[in-house]
Structures are given as C-alpha cells and as structure tokens.
C-alpha cells in the first residue's frame, strides 16, 4: 500500500483519538454490554443490540486509525527545505485575481482536511494547482464553475 502523507499535528490527533477509543470508549462499551446481558433474554434486548452496534463502530474506527498510522509518511513541515515553493504542509496565502479576496490554506493529508479551519487536502484541485509554485506566481484552478485564477501571496512552513 502507498504511504499517505500526514503532518505531525494530524498524526498526533489520530493517536489521541486512538488512545481515547482504546482506553475510554472500548471499556465503556464492554461495561454496557455486560449490564445489558444481565437483563436477561438477548433476543429482545435493545440495550444489548445498541451496545454491540457501538462496539462494532468503535472497533472499526480503531482498525481504520491503526491502518492509517501504519501507512502514514509523517512529515515535519518546520524541517522542510522547499526553497520557497509550495509543498505538502506549507501554509499558503492566495488572492483571487477577480475579487481580490485573500485566503490562507495549509496543505495537509486527506484525513486532516478541514476547510473551515483552513486546511485543504493535498488531493484537492486548488492544492494540486499550487504545488511547486512560489510567491508571486499565478495559479489557475480548474473548478466545476470554470477556471479560477489566484496569485500566491506568501508561503510559510509552520
């Protein structure tokens, strides 16, 4: 399987979620199943079936996170030597050529992407268009509504 890029912050968030699932959620679900079993007939025990369903979701998420972490290529953005180019993990300020509106995005892995927090996936059209560009370069993004032109204002590796 291919290595998936992940920032240090993203990896830490996944590790924290994994720890929470293993040390808090899993024991709570096991206790709920045990309590539900004590109520008797399991065929018609809604509490038991709900707890088993929660267990299934939690175990699935644990497996998913473990898989992602084992296939991750964790990149420390602060140690990159990108020579002023846009690379994975960079925080980029861009300006829309038509409206003059500026936005700041950090290019992150798919699992870390959160547009409201200003983190976009490396696989997004805007991130793919910016990779390799430098401050002052023009970027043309192929958007569903047509091409959109941006200018790269600044690049930071934080």
Descriptive tags:
alpha/beta
The count of DSSP E runs of length 2 or more, i.e. the number of strands, is: 7
Strand content: 25-35%
CA(first)-CA(last) distance: 29 Å
Rg, rounded, reads 22 Å
The arrangement of helices and strands along the chain is: EHHEEEEHEE
Please tell me about this protein's structure.
The chain contains three helices and seven strands, in the order βααββββαββ. The protein has helices spanning 8-38, 46-70, 125-130, and strands at residues 4-7, 72-75, 91-96, 102-108, 119-121, 138-143, 146-156. The strands form two sheets. Strands 5-4-3-7-6 form a five-stranded mixed β-sheet. A hairpin with a 2-residue loop joins strand 6 (138-143) and strand 7 (146-156).
Summed up, what is this model?
39% of the residues lie in helices and 26% in strands. It has three helices and seven strands; from the N terminus they run E-H-H-E-E-E-E-H-E-E.
Record the SSE blueprint.
Layout: E1 4-7, H1 8-38, H2 46-70, E2 72-75, E3 91-96, E4 102-108, E5 119-121, H3 125-130, E6 138-143, E7 146-156
Parallel strand pairs: 1-2, 4-5
Antiparallel strand pairs: 3-4, 3-7, 6-7
């Amino acid at each position: 399987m291919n290595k998936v890029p992940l920032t240090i912050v993203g990896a830490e968030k996944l590790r924290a979620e994994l720890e929470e699932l293993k040390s808090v959620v899993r024991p709570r679900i096991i206790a709920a199943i045990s309590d539900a079993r004590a109520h008797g007939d399991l065929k018609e025990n809604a509490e038991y079936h709900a707890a088993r369903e929660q267990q299934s979701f939690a175990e699935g998420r644990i497996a998913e996170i473990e898989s992602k972490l084992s296939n991750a290529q964790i990149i420390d953005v602060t140690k990159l030597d990108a020579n002023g180019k846009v690379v994975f993990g960079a925080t980029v300020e861009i300006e829309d050529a038509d409206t003059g509106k500026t936005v700041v995005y950090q290019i992150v892995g798919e699992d870390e992407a959160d547009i409201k927090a200003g983190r976009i996936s490396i696989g997004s059209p805007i991130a793919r268009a910016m990779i390799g560009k430098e401050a002052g370069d023009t970027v043309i993004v192929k958007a569903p509504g047509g091409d959109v032109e941006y200018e790269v204002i600044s690049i930071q590796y934080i």
